[in-house]
Specification:
four-stranded antiparallel beta sheet; 22 strands; about 475 residues; about 30% helix; GMP Synthetase, Chain A, domain 3; homodimer; alpha/beta; Rossmann fold; medium-chain fatty acid-CoA ligase activity (chains A, B); 3 domains
């Protein structure tokens, strides 16, 4: 995947990385929507790929060429008769004098990143060469990455092209450490063995590190910078990470902003604050990085900036080179996202008097589980398709390991009966496993005065449940 | 000057910084050529400015508005009747609600930097907003400047807009330390008092530091990165700097490349090399930075890249966003500089097998004195204007303090008599003082087979003289 981040654009083609947790149905939809011509498949995901190809075949869609990637652990007992090429063999027959196909315009697309895939509305976020270049430099700068960094890949490359760091690490002459499996033992082993200087990871990964068995831990010989995002690092985890020897940077952004669009630039004077205050400062989403032209908190109705008082709430909006070109083949969603000339993040925030922003809530009720964004609406759509369900609402339940897990509140149709396990299994049959609710509660759903389901009340109920 | 690097572009105007060592005649020429509308003058340079204005008045040229800058040492006995405004008073009446005038295009000019000023051929290097933005980020990256740096200004802001670091330091939330006078004592005092993390300086400044009286020196509490360029740092100076606690980075570029276009990216494994080898590595001009698209060493006749063997000599050429837009009001020189689609640096170099370049000689015989570029041709033009001079050639003489000083070789016309002192005074009357030769030698000039003056022989003679 790292090599392909160079090979594909240099061949004049467009990258479209797919989430490795997707099921065959979703993969088939995204292959079709992206009009992919070549599918590179790791051997561990071959079965899903083959399932997706079967679905495409059934629909009469043209199939992409398959290139299989293997490694030393690859067992040839896997059936690869349906694959066209093996990656390493393909590389072997490449030409040394191949001329790089440069983009005709710097605005040409370099990649498409799908934010969340449902059969109804996959959204392909288009990145340009220009944006990816500038975000690479910005990501290096916000990571405080000196020359010759050693970067441990934990953030998947299918997440905003790894925040554009495949290119950023290369620009800094860096070394990339790629691992098949992320575990506390592996993380510590890799850091020591390869002299890792930087890594990224969702709060879940931080959680995994601080809660790891002491036998796995090794004393860090140098400071390791960990970039985290998705949700602010909880204070306890933050302090424990720093005790172990990590330096945690809090980044903020969306797929539509090439990953991090802002960061909590840590002011040296904040080192002196008492722990609780420091944690409060660190949880801010901060200021835009140098690749982003503008980030603001605005009233979406009037497009006026909110007062920088730490209280007035508005929607976080971005504009600049490191905002997506648009959603692939979805002009309607693109126009909506760029209403009034700004990209609407869907996140609600306040602006502090020093200009740092702090996200307070999500407009779209996204659930962030293990670093993956789960749209509550997508899960609800599946729940609504269950014969017994009358009303459904999904919100986040706090979780020590995953950060959050989906929690479903359901009202059943009169005369119908089911139970939590049956609902969970139903969801697992129709969604990627990680998107299925882990908790199901049957109640009369609270409503707002206008008759809508009162999600705020449900969020509070889910919060009160505590971690699973 | 630092404030104006923001105020002028934000007013929709174009910066044109003038070398503070220029004389009134040169300033008048550059004011006329640049068509400057406002002249900001430090009170210490007011006399030169007034002299320049008088010359403009004599020529019937429209005069710019004058804005006087003062400081606490300013004595009001200086005649400022001819000035229109005082800077601080002007700032006081500014409007808080002033709307920034953004460039219509990112290719719009942000500044003009004059490379060397003679009445015959001032060359105004035009920088664009786009190039300055990218070079700011690149300068931060090659300087390994983390967030919240403290930058000591020794490189003048009239040199390539301080390598674009006024903007780069701001982008990293940095602190700027500006000083009136550069001396070893001041440098050490400022570093300690302000916790300086980064500074730039010509090899002359490094020389000044390592040869400073021990009483001025103070132990450095943290590593101070010093970026140097113009000519490679001599090994002895390099090692002494590192002993004192500085980390020296070798940068390479020209005014036409926004300052540094390349840098000797220091590979960690080079730390293990014996001192002489390390010094050899450090003296390389290196590799292009991430803002520069391409740097290559080419045969200017065929435009073929030289073989990367460390021996084959060619001309260093650049292309990319951080190459100037062109020379202001000089299409002929612009076309010449960009012949065949690459900017021709005029420097001769080899390329090593690892891709690092090493400059071997200068096509144009530029003399680098105290960080200032002196064109030998400009000095020769003045010498040729002396009634007694038949032939003149100016080359660099090595100098412990200045790096190099101009050394003139002259053949007098038959029947004419003069002496070194008279020639030096003549040059000082017609050139900025620093450009006047410090050494004058009367000989029959050696010639090449094609009848041209054999500068290589003269350079060797000047070298053999040793330091003044």
């Amino acid at each position: 995947m790292y090599e392909l981040h160079f090979a594909v654009p240099m061949a004049g083609a467009i990258l479209c990385t797919l989430n490795s947790r997707l099921d065959a149905a979703m993969v088939s939809v995204l292959l079709e929507h992206s009009q992919a011509k070549i599918l590179f498949v790791d051997y561990q995901l071959l079965e899903i790929a083959q399932g997706a190809l079967n679905l495409l075949r059934e629909r009469g869609t043209e199939l992409p060429i398959i290139v299989l990637l293997t490694d030393s652990e690859y067992s040839s007992t896997i059936d690869i008769t349906s694959t066209s090429y093996e990656y390493e063999k393909l590389v072997d027959v490449g030409h040394n004098d191949f001329n790089i196909v440069r983009p005709r315009s710097e605005w040409d697309p370099i990649s498409v990143n799908y934010t969340s895939g449902t059969t109804s509305s996959p959204k392909g976020v288009v990145y340009s060469h220009r944006g990816a270049y500038l975000n690479s430099l910005a990501a290096v700068l916000v990571s405080q990455m000196d020359l010759f960094p050693v970067y441990l890949w934990i953030v998947p490359l299918f997440h905003c092209n790894g925040w554009c760091l495949p290119w950023g690490v290369a620009a800094q002459f860096g070394t990339n450490i790629c691992v098949r499996k992320v575990s506390p033992k592996n993380i510590f082993d890799d850091i020591i063995q390869h002299k890792v200087t930087h890594m990224g990871g969702a709060p879940t990964v931080l959680n995994m590190i601080v809660n790891s068995a002491l036998t796995y831990r090794k004393p860090l010989k140098n400071k390791v910078v960990v970039m985290t995002g998705g949700s602010p690092p909880p204070s306890q985890i933050l302090f424990k990470m720093e005790e172990i020897g990590f330096s945690v940077s809090h980044l903020y952004g969306l797929t539509e902003t090439y990953g991090p669009g802002a960061f909590c630039a840590w002011r040296p004077e904040w080192d002196m604050l008492p722990p609780q205050e420091r944690s409060k400062m660190k949880s801010r989403q901060g200021v835009p990085h140098v690749g982003m032209e503008e980030m603001d908190v605005k009233d979406p109705a009037t497009m006026e900036s909110v007062v920088a008082d730490g209280k007035s709430v508005g929607e976080v909006m971005f504009r600049g080179n490191t905002v997506m070109s648009g959603y692939y083949r979805d002009l309607k969603a693109t126009k909506e996202a760029f209403k009034d000339g700004w990209f609407h993040s869907g996140d609600l925030a306040v602006k502090h008097c020093d200009g740092y922003i702090e996200v307070k809530d999500r407009l779209k009720d996204v659930i962030v589980s293990g670093g993956e964004n789960i749209s509550s609406i997508e899960v609800e759509t599946v729940l609504y398709s269950h014969p017994a369900v009358l009303e459904a609402a999904v919100v986040a339940r706090p979780d020590d390991l995953w950060g959050e897990t989906p929690c479903a509140f359901l009202k059943l149709k009169q005369g119908f009966h089911t139970n939590s396990q049956e609902i969970i299994h139903f969801c697992r049959d129709h969604l990627p496993r990680y998107m299925a609710p882990k908790t199901v509660i049957f109640i009369d759903l609270p409503k707002t005065s206008t008759g809508k389901i009162h999600k705020l009340v449900l969020r509070e109920k889910a919060k009160a449940l505590g971690s699973l």
